[in-house]
Amino acid sequence: MSIGRIVVYVFAAMLAGVTIGLLKSWPDPAPPLPQNVAQVPPVVASISVRTSPSPSSQPSSQPPSSNAGTPAAVVGQAAPRPGPELPPGQPVPSQGEGWWRTVAGTSTQVGSGRVRTYSVEVEQGAVPPQAQHPFAAAVDRALADPRGWTASGDVAFRRVDVAQPDVRIRLTATETARATCGYDLPYDTSCYVGGVVYVSAPRWFRGAESFAGDLEGYRSYLINHEIGHFLGHGHEPCPADGAPAPVMMQQTFSVSNDQLAEITAARPQGLTVPKDGRTCVANPWPHPEVTR
To answer: How far is 195 from 144, CA to CA, in rounded Å?
Structure first.
């Protein structure tokens, strides 16, 4: 045998040994699963992006709430008590000319008691001319209403425009009213002084918070309250929680005894209002129990 053949045989033997070694080291295939075991499919992760449904399409297990959209801190809180500040409304001139013109017109007697005559007057420059006759008509209605002062049978009213009246009812500019009624209270107010009712023009046109927008009711209250002073009546507190406020209560400022007590504590108004938690309902009439 030649040397070349010997080399070939040796190389072939070495190659065969390497191949056999590799085959022995190769891992055994996984045994087949028993037939009663289900194969689990591979888990594939996925992300689904969907548009949020509109509020109207969202299911709800609770009934709709009237407090929807209200901050949680506000829900369940008591509404603030109406205060003495002048409600928002049309601007009114603060200055007048300081003299009054009697609005022409008279009325028949209303009531069966002692007749008290009155005139209706308007400070010039305080309101436009077209507001004068509506003011006089509102005064007439307030004093002629059967729920008014005539219900007691002690007093009757009649409007005059030339004769000397028992009481003058004057629509008055802000600064004139304050100069006449005094600066004890820092609010727009009306008053009765020396045979004259001074009606604050801002209050007449904008009312009071306690009447919750009932301007006609507030105007009737204002006239009846100040005429009450003319007739000799003083201020009164709220007698019972939820009751109609006495017409002589200072309803322009509040219908709550506690709040009135705070407002008038350092400014005597002829009455010490008790702090008893009582709050009345706004009322423009001396005799609200009378049916029309």
So the answer is: 20
Q: Decide if 246 contacts 236 (C-beta within 8 A).
A: yes
Kindly report the number of other CB atoms within 10 A of residue 129's CB atom: 9
pTM, rounded to two decimals: 0.72
Distance CA 67, CA 176 (A): 46
What number of other Cβ atoms are within 10 A of residue 125's Cβ?
Answer: 14
| Check whether domain 101-235 has CATH 3.40.390, yes or no | yes
Helices (H), the chain: 3-25, 132-144, 174-181, 201-206, 215-230, 257-264
Q: Cβ neighbours of residue 105 under 8 Å, at least 6 residues apart?
A: 120, 133, 136, 159, 161
Q: How far apart are CA 259 and CA 22, in angstroms?
A: 103
Q: If we measure between CA atoms, which residue out of 276, 281, 229 comes closest to residue 254?
A: 281
Phi and psi for 96 in degrees, rounded to 5? -115, -175
HSE of 47 in the Cβ direction (CA atoms, 13 Å)?
1
Q: Which residues contact residue 146 at a Cβ distance below 8 angstroms, ignoring those fewer than 6 apart?
A: 287, 290, 291, 292
pLDDT tens for the chain, 292 residues long, are: 555 554 445 455 454 444 444 444 444 444 443 333 333 333 333 333 333 333 333 333 333 333 333 333 333 344 456 789 999 988 888 999 999 999 999 999 999 999 999 999 999 999 999 999 999 999 999 999 999 999 999 999 999 999 999 999 999 999 999 999 998 888 999 999 999 999 999 999 999 999 999 999 999 999 999 999 999 999 999 999 999 999 999 999 999 999 999 999 988 788 899 999 999 999 999 999 998 7
